[in-house]
Amino acid sequence: MGHDSANIKPESWLVSAGRGSQPGDPLNVPLVPASNFIIGSGREYSRDDGTPTWEALEAVVGGLEGGKALAFASGMAAIAAVFDQLAVGSLVVLPDDCYQGVAGLAAAGEQRGRWSVQRIAVDDTEAWVRACADADLIWLESPSNPLLTVADLELICAAPRKPSAIVGVDNTFATPLNQQPLAFGATVAIQSATKFIGGHSDLLAGVATTNDPALWHALKKSRELTGATPGTLETYLAVRGVRTLAVRLQRAQQTAMLLAERLEAHPQIMRVRYPGLSSHPTHAVAQRVLKGFGTIISFDVLGGAVAADQVCQQVKLIHHATSLGAVESTMERRAAIPGQEHLPPALLRLSVGIENVDDLWNDLSAAIAASSI
Ligand SMILES: *Cc1c(COP(=O)(O)O)cnc(C)c1O
Question: What are the required cofactors (predicted)?
Fold first, then answer.
């Protein structure tokens, strides 16, 4: 590798990192479907020692996040490896608006007596700072899902905490291009590479990045012992996907800002949540901690759940599907998901892709016009 991530800009790093550099090396990362290797190099068995394909993904994402990375089978596998570090009786602090898989994982562990869980509002910075003093795992996710509240990571990650405490930040919604939790003082940053890193809705993978060598080894051990290893094809596709992350993100978040403004001015839209809008409750924090406002917009349609479901059925260019961070735009009504009934019933979460902004707006506004009010 000819570059150091500190010497070139992230958008150059993600194109160049993780490639061979010797004469005759393949320019692209090879797909290495191997469980075992000839003994003698220190690399013997994939589950323990990794593969060249996983390591390419780790090199790219680690450099972007500013630490040393480990690839996992999914975002949840990476998150579970962090929770796996906790001693029995630990205190876990979670955001109120939190990825439901993480809330479920934390609740299951609490039920089994492994740890106790405290939930704090994403924007209640003072409560987070207070909780940091006693918590063993401070878990943050920002911008939050699906309300897009932005946590003050700069203050929370610098708050006094136990020396052994882990500050974990799920950085999936922001991407490492828009937010760098490790630079704020977090212990570990998580990417569901299923989303923006892969970018094409064609794989499941996760990445955990830390600059604490002891934690890196412990997470690697957890991956080895639980078998939470990524797939060869998935890591290959994730590397191929991440090469275009900077241009995909730049285009999609430009479009997201324009769509958010047009939605906010639309008479059939009651409320728009997008961190880039000055009306957003945590816009000021977003301006300080984020380099870009992201590609996800949540908005409430007039006419309740019925009208919102109709919008989902009417869109043609935008796909009625879950997930986010891909080249194609997707939208869903979040309160329709089991376990998410507490959310505003007419809230639609739109993940903006890289299609033309006017085509997206025409599709969306036609669907809104066709919904009953
Ligand atoms: C999708 C997602 C996850 C889980 O990732 P998987 O790859 O599906 O396991 C975790 N956190 C956030 C914010 C997500 O969007």
Answer: pyridoxal 5'-phosphate
What pTM was estimated for this model as a whole? 0.97
Question: What range does the domain containing 68 cover?
Answer: 10-242
Report d(CA 286, CA 142) in Å as an integer.
10
- In a shared domain, residues 224 and 310: no
Whether 176 and 33 map to the same domain: the answer is: yes
Report the distance separating Cα 144 and Cα 40, nearest Å.
Answer: 46
Query: Which residue puts its alpha carbon closest to atom 11 of ligand 1?
Result: 99
d(CA 370, CA 314): 8
Place of tokens 């902004």: 357
Residue in 97, 195, 197 to alter for ligand 1 test, most ligand atoms within 8 A of Cβ: 195
- Active-site residue 220, yes or no? no
Q: Going by DSSP bridges, is the β-strand pair 68-72/319-320 parallel, antiparallel, or unpaired? A: unpaired
Residues 137 and 118 in one domain: yes
162 in catalytic set: no
Q: What is the pLDDT of residue 373?
A: 61
Based on the residue annotation, tell me whether 170 is a catalytic residue of this protein: yes
At residue 79 the predicted structure's pLDDT band, cuts being 50, 70 and 90, is very high
Pocket of ligand 1 from Cβ distances under 6 Å: 74-76, 99, 101, 141, 145, 170, 172-173, 192, 194-195, 204, 206
